[in-house]
Structure formats: C-alpha cells, structure tokens
Amino acid sequence: MSTLYTGGCACGAVRYEAKAAPIFENHCQCRDCQKRSGTGHQSYLTFPSRADVKITGTATDWRIAGDSGNDNIHSFCPVCGTPVYLTFAAMPEPIAVYAGSLDDPSRFNPTVVTYGIRALPWDKMDTALKTFEKMPPG
Q1: Which of 22, 47, 50, 77 has a CB 3.0–4.6 Å from the CB of 9, allowing a cystine?
Q2: Residue 84 half-sphere exposure, CB side, CA atoms within 13 Å?
Q3: How confident is the model over 43-89, as pLDDT tens digits?
Q4: Which residues pair with 91 in a beta bridge?
Q5: Distance of alpha carbon 96 from its chain centroid, rounded?
Q6: Sign (positive/negative) of CA torsion 94, 99, 85, 69?
Q7: Which 3-state string (H, E, C) describes 31-44?
Q8: pLDDT beyond 70 at 2
Q9: Do residues 47 and 34 lie in contact, with contact meaning Cβ atoms separated by under 8 Å?
Q10: DSSP 8-state code for residue 66
C-alpha cells in the first residue's frame, strides 16, 4: 500500500497528494458539517503541514466563521462542486481533506467524534470512538 494519501473531486479537476501521515482523523457533527454534507456529519483527515500536501487544479473557497469566531476555509471543485479540503485562518499550517474524497476511503481511520453535542439522533457513530461535545482541547 502506498504511503501517500491521494484523492480529489468527483470530476478530477482538483487533486491532492499528501506525503505525511494524518495527525487527526475525525467525524464532525457540527451543524455546519451537517449542512455541507447533507447528512449528520462530515469526516476529515488532518495533515500537519500544507507544505506536505500537493494540490493540483484550482479550488473555489468558501469561508465561514467557526464556533471560535475564526474562519474555516472550505475548498471545493468549481466544476463538480465536490468538497476537497479545509484550511483554518487561525492555524495556517494544518490542512484537512474530506475522507470521502480519498482515492481509497478505506484508509480513513477515525479516532474521535467532535461536536457530539450537536449529534442528530439518527446519525449513530461508533460507540468505541471518544466523543467530545465540541473540539478536544489542544
């Protein structure tokens, strides 16, 4: 199996290749993730440095203030609309990719659930995963 994490949008116009291993893999049940996904949560792999993630193609950005008041910058394909990655105005180094955008989504290995306080009753998560009401400290 490749050590690279590769993926992109549905039409192939925006692609990424991550050289590093993810430092955080989570399901997020915040209301913004629910709205963007059209379901009960969104799933992410966060990599430590944008320099370790090569992106080809040009994504369109959409900014929204998170609970902290800082902007989350969601990047999606302008052709097919697929969400591809997420960056954070207050933390310029990390970059998160949407688990569903991976070429091999089976590589996603969630360890926590964030914003469990906003969980919808019909969106059941693996009970073995640690659930945080909001974001974990640190």
Answers
A1: 77
A2: 31
A3: 999 999 999 999 999 999 999 987 778 899 999 999 999 999 999 99
A4: 88
A5: 5
A6: negative
A7: HHHHHHHCCCCEEE
A8: no
A9: no
A10: -
Q: What span, in angstroms and rounded, lies between the C-alpha atoms of 103 and 101?
A: 6
Please spell the DSSP secondary structure of 1-65, one letter per residue: --SSEEEE-SSSSSEEEE-SPPSEEEEE--HHHHHHHTSS-EEEEEES-GGGEEEES-PEEEEEE
**pLDDT above 80 for 91:** yes
pLDDT score for 138:
66
Phi-psi domain of 90 (left: phi exceeds 0; alpha: psi -120 through 50; beta: other) = alpha
Look up residue 16 and give its two tokens. 């990424």
Sign of CA dihedral 37, 69, 61, 94: negative
List the structure tokens of 84: 């591809």
Q: Tokens for 118, please give them.
A: 């906003």
Q: Are strands 42-47 and 5-8 parallel, antiparallel or unpaired?
A: unpaired
- In angstroms, rounded to a whole number, what is the distance separating the alpha carbons of residues 23 and 28? 15
